[in-house]
Specification:
39% of the residues lie in helices and 21% in strands. The chain is built from 15 helices and 22 strands. Helix 2 crosses helix 6, helix 3 packs across helix 4 and helix 9 crosses helix 10.
Length: 490
């Protein structure tokens, strides 16, 4: 029998500097074994409005806070976060179902997000423009107001921090809603850390809710008149809806969505590094990464060798409960994800795809699976999988590889392996992706870079000054010294 006692005691939602409960709670489940990880407040639209109103009240004071003090606060947050990294890593293994190494990477990355946010406080906030009339003509960035941040479950630490740290450092106030699958590591731990760091009441707020309440809470976070911008990371269908609603209200949004990312391996690639990159990119966190390798495109001259060596690597990955740090492959986050992956796998096999390695599904655990013989009529060729199943597809020419990569509605990331960097750069320019990495995996990120995609992979860019550009308003302000004449008739 499963142990159903809560493993984590939560303080509540964080609204206007206070910890508050909700009318009811919902269950936060450990995806490894289905046990209850915590009872979480099931927030409502009214709770969300209360948080937004608190953020609105706090905005003028926070926007006027000296940039040096905002920078110091960001660094204090990073210091406190670093002290709590063991706690986050353990929760990432149990609440999030991730490998210990994934949690460790994520924990240390989050600290860097806040340090990068501290750094942008010292960036230029505008520029001086030429003027035909001798004016002092300036373009200056100002914070917008309340920013809603809706974050996902797959990398909840990184993707929550990235969503709010830079807008916060720029002088905006925040209402964060983490995924119902990871409400603590994606949200409430940040409230604890920022409260300890001394964030003023109302500047940062966290709302949690169940899947049943997501629609009403999400609508409030977009449509409330005090909300000026929306930061969303998640699936493309939800992102389309959020962007459409934001557009209807003329609100700025940055949506980073799904991908169907390719790793392109040319005939002169260094084989060991390329197969390791394919293994990492396809199966890290069970393939539950927007940038995961979802198609490995391999030149026909080395196809057989590559598949053999890739399969050998995949077969060595240890599978099991991620509470054991040696288990690299754990469960998918919930049963809906399993059904999604199973449906694509069954469809591919029924239409003639061959399983090279893996293929087994036990509960929420899907074995690392490599397929060959995948064709364009299969769901797994076109749909985002978000699981540890990847096709390896041969190509004959660079043009063919580019065409296969671009044959999708998505356009997030890509990788190209070759010893010829000029050839890789020529190919990268033709790939319809927001990012491309030569001789590395499609899975790449740093806090200060422009992260985002094209086509159905999103609108806008997260990270560093690009986040600041999205979540600030540019104003043209001039000082006239009597140099501009007016028509004499006036």
């Amino acid at each position: 029998m499963l142990d159903t006692r809560p493993a984590k005691s939560l303080r509540g939602m964080y609204i206007d500097g206070q910890w508050v409960g909700a009318a009811r709670n919902f269950a936060d489940i450990n995806p490894n074994d289905g046990s209850l990880w915590a009872e979480v407040p099931d927030g409502s639209a009214r709770d969300t409005a209360t948080a937004i109103e608190a953020a609105q009240r706090a905005f003028p004071g926070w926007a006027e806070t000296k940039f040096t003090e905002r920078a110091r606060l960001m660094n204090r947050i990073a210091d406190i976060w670093e002290r709590r990294t063991p706690e986050f890593i353990a929760a990432a293994q149990t609440e999030g179902g991730g490998w210990h190494g994934k949690g460790a990477f994520e924990a240390h990355y989050v600290a860097d997000v806040f340090r990068a946010a501290a750094a942008i406080c010292y960036d230029a906030t505008g520029e001086v423009l030429p003027s035909a009339y001798g004016k002092l003509s300036t373009a200056v960035r100002y914070p917008m107001g309340v920013i809603s941040v809706i974050s996902p479950w797959n990398f909840p630490g990184i993707l929550s921090a990235r969503g709010f740290a830079f807008p916060l450092a720029a002088g905006n106030t925040i209402v964060l809603k983490p995924s119902e699958d990871t409400p603590w590591i994606g949200g409430l731990i940040f409230a604890e850390v920022l409260e300890e760091a001394g964030i003023p009441a109302g500047v940062f707020n966290v709302i949690t809710c169940s899947r049943e309440n997501v629609a009403e809470v999400g609508d409030e976070m977009i449509e409330h008149p005090f909300v000026k911008g929306i930061s969303f990371t998640g699936s493309t269908p939800v992102g389309r809806s959020i962007a459409a609603k934001a557009g209807a209200h003329l609100k700025k949004c940055c949506v980073e969505l799904g991908g169907k990312d390719s790793l392109i391996v040319l005939e002169d690639a260094e084989m060991e590094r390329a197969t390791q990159a394919a293994n990492f990119g396809s199966f890290m966190h069970q393939g539950q990464i927007c940038m995961s390798v979802e198609k490995v495109l391999v030149h026909e001259a080395i196809f057989a060798e590559f598949v053999e060596k890739f399969a050998a690597r995949a077969a060595k990955l240890k599978i099991g409960d991620t509470a054991d740090k040696d288990n690299v492959i754990g469960p998918l986050i919930n049963d809906r994800q399993v059904e999604r992956v199973k449906g694509q796998l069954d469809d591919a096999i029924a239409k003639g795809a061959q399983v090279v390695v893996g293929g087994g599904i036990r509960g929420r655990v899907v074995e690392p699976t490599i397929l060959t013989g995948v064709t364009a009529d299969m769901r797994i060729y076109r749909e985002e999988t978000f699981g540890p199943v990847v096709p390896v597809i041969p190509f004959a020419t660079d043009d063919e590889a580019i065409a296969i990569n671009n044959d999708t509605e998505y356009g997030l990331s890509a990788g190209i392996f070759t010893r010829d960097e000029a050839r890789a750069l020529a190919m990268a320019r033709r790939l319809e992706t927001g990012m491309c990495h030569v001789n590395c995996s499609s899975v790449n990120d740093e806090p200060h870079v422009p992260f985002g995609g094209s086509k159905a992979s999103g609108v806008g860019r997260h990270g560093g000054r690009w986040s600041v550009e999205t979540f600030t308003e540019t104003r043209w302000i001039t000082l006239d010294r009597g140099g501009r004449p007016f028509p004499p008739v006036f």
